[in-house]
Amino acid sequence: MIEYKGVMKSFGGQTVLDGVDLAVKEGETFFVLGKTGAGKTVMIRMLVGLIRPDGGSIRMDGEELAGREEEDFQSIRRKCGMVFQLPTLFDSYSVFENVAFGLRRLGDVEEDEIFERVAESLRRVELDPEISERMPDELSFGEQKRVGLARTLVMNPKYLLYDEPTTGLDPFTAGKIDGLIKHLNESMNATSIVVSHDLMSMKNLADRVGVLWDGKFSFVGSVPEFMEATSESVLEFKKGLAEGGRKA
Amino acid sequence: MSPVLKFLDRLWQLPFLLVGYLFTWFGPFLRELGGMVIFFGMVIRSMFRRPFEWGELVIQLYQVGVKSVPIVIIAGLFVGAIVGLQFEYALGLFRANQYLGGIATSGLLREVGPVLVSVMVAGRVGAYITAELGTMKVTEQIDAVRCLGANPIQFLIVPRFIAVTVMIFVLTILGLIIATMGGALAAYILADMGVSKYFAGIRSLDAAWALFNGMAKAVLFGLLLSTISCYKGIMTEGGTEGVGKAVNSCLVTSSLAIFIVDYIIAGLSSLTFQVAESLLEFG
Description:
Helix content of chain A is 37%, strand content 25%.
């Protein structure tokens, strides 16, 4: 379980998160909606220690994350799989080496096991393990995103954190990525937080939805509740005023 | 890591932090300098942590060293020839051509060789490292490294830092050998001076001291360039435009730093000679 309590964050005097409260339940897919710059990405980056909160408390499985030092985040990072907005593949490494990167850092995984887990992880994201020897620049953007996802999944994380997973993809590929994420979340029974401003993705993936507005959640509820809500922030999304996203 | 080990691990980094933070109190320039001092301390600390990324080090040694060999050979040959020619003309005015080998080589070993190789490597390798790390930073690859359980300083910076420092030293030695050969070749072809006569002149001057001086500079310039290029890369912000700015800043900063430090060493070296001379006279 992940809990945010009164989480604050400012950048250069501008408040981004102003006392965020949220509890994400075990096994659910929580979808965070918000305009660009609303602090959605900041929220999930705090879970893996890439950004530190200015105040408040963040707990994961009862462990406090606020105030931790860099070295003390290693155990937390092993539980979390972060899927970035860009594929973030290492250009000088082959697909195999990219996917195997995290396993090699563990230091105690045999080469045979690494080979099997990489192949399995590539199959999970519907890629042929035959592409293992290819370099990232030989893949399409959609394939690169899948390899990035495979690199996260190979670590068998308990929590999956998706940062704008469909950004930069055409509606067809975005739909396929949504389907893949849904299948993975169900098959792995992982707890997921998806950050996006894509309403179609929300409909496809979310168990619950939260709208981040002026530094706080102005709405938290199920998808049907979201569709019927009439608050200003929710209406703005439903009218398609939010930047970028595919309309539901 | 136990709290005691963690404390000891950080204790020795304290001088770097103190000097670094002291600088950060005075304006943007010294803030940057302070940042580099702190960064240098972090890199040195990370060098002794396990696991050491041997594979990445080999890749960087190849990228930095082997790929720079042709340019160092070509530039070294021509610079040696130019220095030889210039001195041949000047010494000819005083009918002192027998000193050509000694004076040209001394100048090459002390000043031209280390500075030239370092500035060339700054242009080729420093820019490459800053651009590579800067791109990794703005495309979140460095964040991905952290999320996958690796320490970016340990995984990305330490191998590049060691590769640049070691390879500038090796390339400087190579550059000096080639430049000396270039000088001898120019003297032979254009000044009709025999190679044995040219090299006899080298022995007549303090070649060993000049070589030591040059090597010491090569190590120092290597440390400067590796710190500046890695620091500029890892501190890149502002997308692709930021990468361009970081590369530009790396080139300007590292070239200036090399010239300034070279001047300081030349001053100190000259002072050492004067003190030694005074002591000898006094004795």
